[in-house]
Amino acid sequence: MKPTSTTLPLGKLLRFGSVGLSVMGVFMTLNWLLGRLMGEQAAFLCAYPPALLLHFLLNKLWTFENRERVNGRQVREYVFMVGLTFAIQWGVFTALRIWTDWPGWASAGLANVAQMAVSFALMQARVFAVKSGRS
Protein backbone atom coordinates (compact mmCIF):
# COMPACT_ATOMS: atom_id res chain seq x y z
CA MET A 1 0.00 0.00 0.00
CA LYS A 2 1.37 3.40 -0.98
CA PRO A 3 1.56 5.81 1.97
CA THR A 4 -0.77 8.79 1.78
CA SER A 5 -0.88 11.97 3.81
CA THR A 6 -3.32 10.35 6.20
CA THR A 7 -1.46 7.06 6.67
CA LEU A 8 1.62 8.98 7.74
CA PRO A 9 1.25 10.14 11.36
CA LEU A 10 2.61 13.63 10.73
CA GLY A 11 0.28 14.23 7.78
CA LYS A 12 -2.72 13.12 9.78
CA LEU A 13 -1.68 15.25 12.73
CA LEU A 14 -1.21 18.32 10.52
CA ARG A 15 -4.64 17.83 8.97
CA PHE A 16 -6.18 17.38 12.41
CA GLY A 17 -4.49 20.56 13.59
CA SER A 18 -5.78 22.46 10.56
CA VAL A 19 -9.31 21.21 11.19
CA GLY A 20 -8.95 22.08 14.87
CA LEU A 21 -7.83 25.62 14.12
CA SER A 22 -10.64 26.09 11.60
CA VAL A 23 -13.28 24.75 13.95
CA MET A 24 -11.81 26.78 16.81
CA GLY A 25 -12.14 29.92 14.66
CA VAL A 26 -15.79 29.13 13.94
CA PHE A 27 -16.42 28.29 17.61
CA MET A 28 -14.77 31.48 18.86
CA THR A 29 -16.61 33.61 16.30
CA LEU A 30 -19.94 32.06 17.25
CA ASN A 31 -19.08 32.64 20.92
CA TRP A 32 -18.32 36.29 20.19
CA LEU A 33 -21.48 36.83 18.13
CA LEU A 34 -23.79 34.99 20.52
CA GLY A 35 -22.10 36.57 23.54
CA ARG A 36 -23.44 39.91 22.35
CA LEU A 37 -26.99 38.51 22.57
CA MET A 38 -26.80 36.36 25.70
CA GLY A 39 -24.52 35.49 28.59
CA GLU A 40 -21.09 34.02 27.89
CA GLN A 41 -21.92 30.60 29.36
CA ALA A 42 -25.09 30.38 27.21
CA ALA A 43 -23.13 31.53 24.15
CA PHE A 44 -20.55 28.77 24.77
CA LEU A 45 -23.30 26.13 24.94
CA CYS A 46 -25.09 27.42 21.81
CA ALA A 47 -21.88 27.63 19.76
CA TYR A 48 -20.85 24.07 20.65
CA PRO A 49 -23.23 21.96 18.48
CA PRO A 50 -22.49 23.62 15.12
CA ALA A 51 -18.76 23.46 15.88
CA LEU A 52 -19.09 19.74 16.68
CA LEU A 53 -20.85 18.97 13.41
CA LEU A 54 -18.18 20.80 11.45
CA HIS A 55 -15.45 19.02 13.46
CA PHE A 56 -16.92 15.57 12.82
CA LEU A 57 -17.41 16.08 9.10
CA LEU A 58 -14.04 17.69 8.36
CA ASN A 59 -12.16 15.05 10.35
CA LYS A 60 -14.12 12.17 8.86
CA LEU A 61 -13.75 13.29 5.26
CA TRP A 62 -10.40 15.09 5.23
CA THR A 63 -8.20 14.15 8.20
CA PHE A 64 -8.99 10.44 8.28
CA GLU A 65 -10.28 10.15 4.68
CA ASN A 66 -13.12 7.97 5.91
CA ARG A 67 -15.60 7.60 3.06
CA GLU A 68 -17.88 4.96 4.52
CA ARG A 69 -21.39 6.00 5.46
CA VAL A 70 -21.70 7.39 8.94
CA ASN A 71 -22.56 4.38 11.08
CA GLY A 72 -23.74 3.69 14.61
CA ARG A 73 -20.28 2.78 15.89
CA GLN A 74 -18.77 6.05 14.66
CA VAL A 75 -21.59 8.07 16.20
CA ARG A 76 -21.34 6.21 19.55
CA GLU A 77 -17.56 6.61 19.67
CA TYR A 78 -17.80 10.29 18.70
CA VAL A 79 -20.49 11.00 21.31
CA PHE A 80 -18.31 9.30 23.97
CA MET A 81 -15.32 11.41 22.88
CA VAL A 82 -17.42 14.58 22.86
CA GLY A 83 -18.61 13.90 26.41
CA LEU A 84 -15.06 13.47 27.64
CA THR A 85 -13.60 16.41 25.76
CA PHE A 86 -16.58 18.63 26.62
CA ALA A 87 -15.87 18.02 30.31
CA ILE A 88 -12.28 19.14 29.74
CA GLN A 89 -13.33 22.18 27.70
CA TRP A 90 -16.10 23.25 30.07
CA GLY A 91 -13.80 22.93 33.07
CA VAL A 92 -11.03 24.98 31.49
CA PHE A 93 -13.50 27.58 30.16
CA THR A 94 -15.21 27.95 33.54
CA ALA A 95 -11.88 28.19 35.39
CA LEU A 96 -10.63 30.87 32.99
CA ARG A 97 -13.85 32.85 33.38
CA ILE A 98 -13.48 32.72 37.18
CA TRP A 99 -9.73 33.31 37.48
CA THR A 100 -9.04 35.71 34.60
CA ASP A 101 -10.64 38.75 33.06
CA TRP A 102 -10.30 37.33 29.54
CA PRO A 103 -13.31 37.73 27.26
CA GLY A 104 -15.52 34.66 26.82
CA TRP A 105 -14.45 34.06 23.21
CA ALA A 106 -10.76 33.94 24.19
CA SER A 107 -11.46 31.62 27.12
CA ALA A 108 -13.44 29.36 24.76
CA GLY A 109 -10.49 29.25 22.35
CA LEU A 110 -7.97 28.25 25.00
CA ALA A 111 -10.38 25.66 26.39
CA ASN A 112 -10.64 24.24 22.88
CA VAL A 113 -6.86 23.89 22.64
CA ALA A 114 -6.81 22.12 26.02
CA GLN A 115 -8.90 19.20 24.75
CA MET A 116 -7.30 18.75 21.30
CA ALA A 117 -4.76 16.05 22.21
CA VAL A 118 -7.42 13.85 23.83
CA SER A 119 -9.71 14.41 20.85
CA PHE A 120 -7.05 13.39 18.30
CA ALA A 121 -6.09 10.24 20.19
CA LEU A 122 -9.69 9.08 20.53
CA MET A 123 -10.63 9.89 16.94
CA GLN A 124 -7.66 7.99 15.57
CA ALA A 125 -7.94 4.99 17.89
CA ARG A 126 -11.72 4.67 18.13
CA VAL A 127 -13.98 6.87 16.04
CA PHE A 128 -12.42 6.42 12.61
CA ALA A 129 -10.36 3.31 13.26
CA VAL A 130 -11.01 0.57 10.76
CA LYS A 131 -13.12 -2.09 12.44
CA SER A 132 -13.81 -5.29 10.59
CA GLY A 133 -17.29 -6.74 10.58
CA ARG A 134 -19.05 -4.35 12.98
CA SER A 135 -20.82 -1.06 12.72
Architecture overview:
It is a single chain. By secondary structure, this protein is mostly helical. It has one domain (9-127). α1 runs antiparallel to α2, α1 packs antiparallel against α4 (104-127) and α3 (72-99) packs antiparallel against α4 (104-127). The chain is elongated, with a radius of gyration of 16 Å. The chain has helices spanning 9-35, 40-63, 72-99, 104-127.
What number of domains?
A: 1
Report how far the terminal alpha carbons are from each other: 24 Å
Secondary structure tally, helices: 4
Specify Rg, calculated over alpha carbons. Answer: 16 Å
Percent helix range = over 70%
| Beta-strand content estimate | under 5%
How many individual β-strands? 0
**What number is the mean pLDDT?**
85
Spans of at least 5 consecutive residues with low confidence: none
Topology pattern, helix = H, strand = E: HHHH
